[in-house]
Every structure is written in C-alpha cells, then in structure tokens.
Amino acid sequence: AAKIPGARPEDLRPSPIPGVFELVHGASVSYVSADARYILSGDLYEVGDKGEFPNLTEDRRRELRAKLISAVPESEMIVFGPKSAKYTINVFTDVDCPWCRRLHGQMADYNKLGIRVRYLAWPRTAPKSESWVKAQHVWCARDRAEVIGKAIGGWAVAAASCADPVQRHHDLGRQLGV
After folding, report:
1. Is 124 designated active site?
2. How far apart are the C-alpha atoms of 81 and 118, rounded to whole Å?
3. Is the dihedral of CA 134, 135, 138, 139 positive or negative?
4. Closest alpha carbon to 137 in 119, 167, 163, 157
C-alpha cells in the first residue's frame, strides 16, 4: 500500500482502480499511486453499462460529510423543528451574516414544509473577533434558540461563557469545505 508522509493508515483505502489508493482528509478525497509518487486530485467517474457516469468521488465525499456531521451531538447544535420532520438540514451560521439572517427569518416556513434546521457555529471572522465572541455568547446561553434569534436580528446578547463548541464547529466546517 502507498505510504504518504503524514497520512494515517485509516486515511488510505483501495480505490476501484487497481494500484491506486483513495486518500481521505476530512471530507476531501484524492487518489495516490501505490508507490506514493503520484497524487491525483479530482473526481473519479465510473463508466456504467447503460451510459451513465456515477461520480464515485462525490459519493464518497457525501459519506464522509455525513460521518463527520453525525459525530456532532445535537446538544451542541441549535435545532429548529421537530425530530419527526421529513427532512433535516445542517446549517453553518454566522450571526452577522445577512444571508443567515434571511434564512432564519424564514425558519417557520421551513419548519411548516417539514424541514428541520440544525445550526452549527460558523463565525466568518477570526477567533476573538466580534462575530466569534457573539457566537460564543449564543452557544453558551441558557436558551440558545431565543438568543440566536436576537443575535441574528442585530440585538445585543448577554455575555455568557462555557466550554462552547464554536472552535470545533469552525474546524468541522473547514474539513467539510464550508
């Protein structure tokens, strides 16, 4: 098998192409030759018998994303909608983002359509910035759902501190390519 400096054994597995291995980093997928001299970055398609071309790389990325998201407990998220909703989406949100504000303003409509929304923190600015600190206050609030509504609406939120998940969510977002 290929030996890639810095790659863990669990990051490599055989690809559908003999002599080529799949290399995973977060939700990113590349391919490497068995002698580790060549790395190919791009999508791998399979030519099907009926003229279809399934994207094997995207299928694998989808699997990896789902695994990474499923590792985040809902207790670290802010959830709108019932568990019995027909669909669930995960949204990396920034309380200062105008598009995030727009989505949040339509939350009741999404929930009525059977869509459950799970927020993860994604301040678009650096740690210790105003948006980052607001995200920490939101995730440490006693009633996160109420406080995020206020923060996204532009209202000041009370300072709160805890072992917040903001950095973990941000790191996860980077792994997922947010």
Report:
1. yes
2. 9
3. negative
4. 157
State residue 24 phi and psi, 5-degree precision.
-110, 135
Burial class (CB in 10 A: 0-12, 13-18, 19+), 175: middle
Question: What amino acid is encoded at 92 in this protein?
Answer: F
At 151, list the tokens.
Answer: 């923060």
pLDDT by 10s per residue, the chain, length 178: 667 877 888 899 999 999 999 999 989 999 999 999 999 999 999 998 888 999 999 999 999 999 999 999 999 999 999 999 999 999 999 999 999 999 999 999 999 999 999 999 999 999 999 999 999 999 999 999 999 999 999 999 999 999 999 999 999 999 998 9
* H or E stretch covering 173: helix 166-176
Output the pTM of the full model.
0.86
Catalytic site includes residue 140:
no
Q: Which of 11, 43, 59, 97 is catalytic?
A: 97
d(CA 125, CA 132): 7
* Axis crossing angle, helix 144-152 with helix 130-140, rounded to the nearest 10: 150
Q: Which of 100, 116, 140, 144 is catalytic?
A: 100
